[in-house]
Amino acid sequence: MVSILEKNNIKVNEIESYKTVLTPNQIENSISSILFYSPTGIQSFLLENDTEDKIAFCIGETTASEARKHFKTVIVSKSAAISSVIDAVNTYYKKQKS
Questions:
Q1: If we measure between CA atoms, which residue out of 92, 84, 94, 40 comes closest to residue 65?
Q2: Residue 90 has what pLDDT?
Q3: Which CATH architecture has domain 31-98?
Q4: d(CA 96, CA 47)
Q5: Rounded to whole angstroms, how far apart are CA atoms 27 and 30?
Q6: Is-contact 35 67, C-beta < 8 A?
Q7: How far is CA 90 from CA 3, 65, 77, 87, 95, in A?
Q8: What phi and psi, each to the nearest 5 degrees, are found at residue 54?
Q9: Are 96 and 70 in contact (CB under 8 A)?
Q10: With contact defined as beta carbons under 8 Å apart, do 85 and 77 qualify?
Q11: Does residue 22 contact residue 46 with C-beta atoms inside 8 Å?
Q12: pLDDT tens digits along 12-46
């Protein structure tokens, strides 16, 4: 994108507005599912944990794309809201009980 702007004589000043810092934590291996709200959340999780037999619940398709690289089962919420991710968890486990 920058090269297109520069080719059209538009000056570009790139400013880094934030830097993501991964903060991994090891969690109990007995959990069966994890809720993710960003691709970097998944990357941070993977530094200290495994994905074996775990389900990833994701807030959107961008996060789910990253999760699919590492998890066998990935569930995407219907909307990009925390409540929607929780609804996806509830729906999934209600179906598992029946």
A1: 40
A2: 96
A3: 3-Layer(aba) Sandwich (3.40)
A4: 29
A5: 9
A6: no
A7: 46, 22, 11, 5, 9
A8: -110, 150
A9: no
A10: yes
A11: no
A12: 788 889 888 999 999 988 899 999 999 999 999 99
Q: In the structure encoding, which two tokens stand for residue 50, read together?
A: 């495994």
Amino acid letter, residue 81: A
Give the tens place of pLDDT for each residue, 53-83. Answer: 999 999 999 999 999 999 999 999 999 999 9
State the residue for tokens 């880094």. Answer: 16
- Judge contact between 64 and 43, C-beta under 8 A: no
CA distance 49 to 26: 6
Nearest Cα to Cα of residue 58 among 95, 25, 45: 45
